[in-house]
Amino acid sequence: MSKPNRNNGLDPETEFAEIYRNLATYEFPWDLNQSLSFALFRTYAVPSVGRLLDQTGASTQNTQKRYDDTSILLEVPLLEGFDSPNGKAAIQRINQMHHMYDISNEDFLYVLATFVVVPQRWIENYGWRQLTGDELLASVRYYQALGRHMGIKDIPATYAEFAALMDTYEAAHFAFDPGARRVADATMNLLASFYPAVAKPIIDIFSRSLMDEPLLAAFRYRNPGNLARRLSAAGLRLRARFVAALPPRRTPQYVHTMPRIRSYPNGFDVKTLGTFAPGCPVPHLHSPQPDTTTSPS
User: Fold this and answer.
1) 273 lies in a domain?
2) Which of 19, 157, 183, 204 has the smallest number of Cβ neighbours within 10 A?
3) Could you give the CA distance from residue 5 to residue 195 in angstroms, rounded to a whole number?
4) What is the pLDDT of residue 205?
5) pLDDT score of 156 more than 70
């Protein structure tokens, strides 16, 4: 007997935030957390993104805090709404940090596309069930709204357009960069730190097993081999079958309460998260301008 879907009956055009919140906190909390982390990891393979993150130092010198801040700042608007005081403060912090640097609209679009496409592909391969058409549309609408609040221009209209943008951008821009490799290594080390030290070699092989050939090549990571890939995929699919057999989740799972978020044991103030100027190592020239409605009222 299949589990009831709490998103049944919700309109993806008007209730997309509630649908996506249900996906993130009830239906697929682990899968979305893993896949969104992997989506961000993919962006490092674009040298203009990975090199900038290396130059700022936040991703290599204080990797845990950057991971925590990014996770929380993305989660707050989802939980409380774009127009809530904390939601506005989170978007404002995201925009303030981005406007410290020279980031092209094309890079912003690519990163946004990974948030839409990578989770869908992850769930398609490893989820305990597939997303419905309405849930996929709601995911698209949610990230279109986030993109507008960030002032991103020329946002794709459909999932197919997001997928084509991501695949085309990666084919054109994935390349090796020493700084990007340092950011990737720091992120891999952080991932390993979430598990007992003896598991680090296994986590390393498992992580590389989930990377496609272009991503491995961009970081010059060793191919883990077909056996490791098959075993890793089998493990994720076995997990999916186990989750499918469990009763429906009754309480939401929030990212900011997960044990891997370690920087704020006593709570956090959204307005103080992230990095602040001065200290920008590169000039800013043409970053998208944020939607003015995101400033706290």
Assistant:
1) no
2) 157
3) 32
4) 97
5) yes
Tell me: the pLDDT tens digits for 271-295?
999 988 754 433 444 445 454 343 3
Where does the chain have alpha helices with state H? 16-22, 29-43, 47-56, 58-61, 63-80, 85-98, 105-126, 133-149, 159-173, 178-193, 200-209, 213-219, 226-245
Domain that holds residue 165: 16-245
Phi-psi region of 31 (alpha: psi -120 to 50; beta: other; left: phi over 0): alpha
35-84 pLDDT tens trace: 999 999 999 999 999 999 999 887 888 899 999 999 999 999 999 999 99
Q: Comparing C-alpha atoms, which of 237, 247, 200, 220 is closest to residue 122? A: 237
Is the confidence at residue 258, as pLDDT, over 70? Answer: yes
| Amino acid letter for position 124 | E
Backbone angles phi, psi at 278, to 5 degrees: -80, 180
Q: Which two tokens stand for residue 262?
A: 């370690």
Whether 218 is covered by a domain: the verdict is yes
Domain assignment present for 5:
no
Say whether pLDDT at 9 is over 70. Answer: yes
Number of structural domains the chain divides into? 1
* CA 24/CA 123 separation, integer angstroms: 12
Domain assignment of residue 187, yes or no: yes
* Burial category of 247 from C-beta neighbours within 10 Å (exposed 0-12, middle 13-18, buried 19 and up): exposed
Backbone angles phi, psi at 12, to 5 degrees: -65, -15
Contacts of 4 (CB under 8 A, 6+ apart): 248
- Taking the C-alpha atoms of residue 21 and residue 204, their distance in angstroms, rounded to an integer, is 31
One DSSP character per residue, 275-293 reads: --SS--SS----PPPPPGG
